Design the sequence.
């Protein structure tokens, strides 16, 4: 079974508008962390934002925010005021357990295209 | 601060040949990961080291893949012999050991630019 599901293979957004990228996850471990990474065409994975399973508030990092709905097991990424440089692949990932050195399990990714 | 370095950036080989990739993690990062990213998919962990010991190699095809991290710094990933299905981007990542000076409690992984392997 897929542990991380990203159902949107591709998304388009107009420059300066907000966009939501969906991510659902599956785990029976009460302790886990959720990550979002951006992968531009250059190939490097760039860390964007983190949400811990015990965090009471939704994470925010600049223009990025995470809409964390624990009961629904969803961790959607919201990008506000989209910029042309936001065009890239976006991956949701999960680290299970309390070991902060554990591996990341990635979803299939969503390709975001920002239109001028 | 220098990031994770990888070489080569691109490699094209014939099937049944061998190939090696090199990774130099961020200075001071004790944990090193090798991920395989097949086109259209998310990365998948192949092997994880902490210092020079293997933590997780459960998804490494050990009949053809091998990896080492001598002296707990640089790492090399080798494929011998290569198959067509090994065509992918090989990403190296590093992180601090949890609880030992991590800048943030969640200890994110930092990725290199990857090596794109094409097997013909």
Sequence:
């Amino acid at each position: 079974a897929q542990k991380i599901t990203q159902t949107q293979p591709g998304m388009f957004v107009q420059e300066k508008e907000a966009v939501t990228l969906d991510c659902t996850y599956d785990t029976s471990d009460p302790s886990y962390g959720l990550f979002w990474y951006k992968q531009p065409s250059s190939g490097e994975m760039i860390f964007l934002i983190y949400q811990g399973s015990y965090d009471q508030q939704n994470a925010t990092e600049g223009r990025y925010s995470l809409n964390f709905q624990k009961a629904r097991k969803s961790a959607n990424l919201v990008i506000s005021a989209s910029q042309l440089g936001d065009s890239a692949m976006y991956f949701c990932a999960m680290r299970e357990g309390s070991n902060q050195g554990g591996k990341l399990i990635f979803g299939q990714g969503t390709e975001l295209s920002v239109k001028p | 601060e220098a990031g994770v370095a990888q070489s080569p950036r691109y490699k094209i080989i014939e099937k049944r040949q061998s190939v090696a990739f090199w990774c130099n993690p961020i200075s001071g990062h004790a944990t090193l990961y090798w991920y395989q990213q097949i086109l259209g998919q998310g990365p998948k962990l192949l092997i994880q080291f902490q210092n020079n010991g293997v933590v997780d190699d459960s998804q490494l095809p050990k009949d053809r893949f091998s990896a080492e991290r001598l002296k707990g710094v640089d790492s090399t990933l080798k494929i011998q012999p290569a198959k067509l299905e090994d065509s992918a981007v090989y990403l190296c990542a590093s992180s601090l050991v949890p609880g030992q000076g991590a800048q943030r409690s969640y200890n994110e992984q930092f990725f290199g630019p990857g090596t794109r392997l094409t097997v013909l």
Remarks:
- The radius of gyration of chain B is 14 Å.
- The interface with chain A takes residues 31, 33, 40-45, 48, 50, 55-56, 89, 91, 93, 95, 97-99, 102, 104-114, 116 of chain B (CB under 8 Å).
